[in-house]
Design goal:
With 433 residues, this protein is of the alpha/beta class. The chain has helices spanning 2-21, 61-64, 73-81, 107-120, 126-138, 145-152, 170-184, 189-193, 215-234, 253-261, 275-289, 348-351, 356-359, 367-379, 392-399, 405-410; strands spanning 28-34, 40-46, 195-198, 201-205, 242-247, 266-272, 305-309, 318-319, 322-323, 328-333, 380-387, 412-419, 425-432.
């Protein structure tokens, strides 16, 4: 009993601490790994404002914390706290696909019913899905609503919380039911809501079929920001902007996170082969960078960030009648890197909705990586950071090892490889010789 109490307290502390830190989204959360013995190991992990529900190889939330689902004490609390009766048309034993809500139902009850409906259909991370969708349906503050609803999960059914006991209108019930139905069909949460948080970009617009930004990609941004900071310190008195090439813009997340941090210091040019990705990236640029523009000086957003339609293999100093200098200071890319043999193993919320062009990197997943490496000496004399499949860093390190024939032939060497916050080999740093 004492061991169970310790585990329970630690898990509750995890949720409370992560909720308190959710707004900033950059502090470390607590990860409790419960062993079969009475001891617990507390491990620091990177956490953001919201979990990323969809990832190339998603891990169930219980496994992510190394806790067997049936032995998770807080899971038992959730189950106990939920009203499992069949009122409001929610008979949990009939296998119904959708949650049915009657106007006047309280927010707490609606939240619990939605989680049950998602669990019955084995939707990944049902709590996170329900929290985000309910917050969206109620029109709560984007930054705070999710956190406020999360706290309801810890409340008993007899709680006097104003928000937990607030009745829902017919319009709110219908909206929430509709969103839950879409999630039951495994549509990514980011597409349903239409926005997501990435790094310091709060409410980045997301559209199908662009890749939904993943939390590990924020680590890629941090590596680049560190290099940018060093370049700023070493450039002396010159005011020339540091030029960055982002290969594969998608939503614009990587390049815009960099430009947003150093808006007066950098200029980002982003490439993508999907017209809708180029459009979305430039729309997001206007959303996040417009406040950094001095209109009196005749500056525009593309002074800081611009996405163009072009592949890595085709990018030269002239595109669509425009001339681009090739002396970029840094190249960064999160290219399609999933080996074709692994595409069939992707979860449905990824394979059914996200673009194959943004996911598949050919037979071994390295097709676009090879294109980038081949072009690097033309683009830059500096560094290139890439996020890749966890099978790639060792392959790239061998292929482009310093002093090797291939490294000398291509004029590029692998400087270092790095793990993501889950301990997987994920990033490579290359340098042009």
């Amino acid at each position: 009993m004492a061991a169970f109490s310790i585990k329970l307290v630690l898990k509750v502390m995890f949720l409370l601490v992560s909720s308190a830190m959710w707004k900033r989204g950059q502090a470390a959360a607590l990860k409790c790994a419960f062993s079969s013995s009475s001891t617990s190991q507390i491990i620091g992990v990177m956490s953001r404002q919201r979990h990323t529900i969809c990832s190339p190889k998603p891990v169930p939330i219980y496994n992510r914390f190394d806790i067997p689902k049936g032995k998770d004490p807080l899971y038992s609390i959730y189950s106990t706290a939920r009203n499992l009766s069949s009122n409001n048309g929610n008979d949990t034993s009939d296998g119904a696909a959708a949650v049915k809500l009657t106007p006047g139902i309280t927010i707490q009850t609606a939240l619990n019913y939605a989680i049950q409906a998602l669990e019955r259909k084995s939707v990944p991370e049902p709590e996170e899905s329900a929290l985000n969708l309910l917050s969206h349906s109620l029109g709560l503050c984007w930054e705070l609503g999710h956190r406020e609803l999360r706290e309801i999960l810890l409340l008993p059914s007899t709680s006097k919380s104003v928000l937990a006991n607030q009745p829902m209108s017919e319009e709110q019930c219908n909206a929430f039911q509709s969103l839950i139905e879409r999630r039951i069909h495994l549509e990514p949460l980011q597409y349903i809501i239409g926005q997501w948080d990435f790094h310091d970009l709060i409410g980045l617009k997301i559209k199908e079929p662009m890749l939904c930004p993943r939390p590990e990609t924020e680590e890629l941004v941090e590596f680049v920001l560190k290099d940018v900071s060093e370049l700023i310190r070493n450039r002396g008195s010159t005011k020339e902007r540091i030029r960055i090439l982002d290969v594969g813009s998608g939503t614009g997340a990587i390049g815009l996170a960099i430009a947003n941090r150093y808006c007066d210091e950098v200029q980002v040019l982003a490439l993508d082969v999907l017209p809708e990705a180029v459009e979305l990236s430039n729309d997001n640029a206007k959303r996040f960078l417009a406040n950094h523009i001095d209109e009196e000086e005749g500056c525009e957003v593309d002074t800081i960030y611009k996405a163009i339609l072009c592949s890595a293999d085709d990018f030269t100093n002239t595109q669509a009648g425009e001339t681009y200098k090739m002396d970029f200071d840094i190249v960064v890319s999160n290219p399609p890197y999933i080996p074709s043999r692994d595409m069939a193993t992707l979860s449905e919320d990824v394979s059914r909705y996200e673009s194959d062009k943004a996911l598949c990197g050919g037979d071994d997943g390295l097709d676009i990586v090879r294109h980038i490496v081949k072009r690097l000496p033309e683009w830059t004399t500096g560094n290139c950071w890439m996020e890749v499949d966890d099978s790639h860093p060792s392959l790239i390190a061998d292929w482009l090892s310093p002093g090797s024939l291939e490294s000398s032939r291509l004029g590029v060497e692998c400087v270092s490889t790095h793990k993501d916050f889950c301990g997987r080999d994920r990033f490579v740093k290359l340098r042009v010789l």
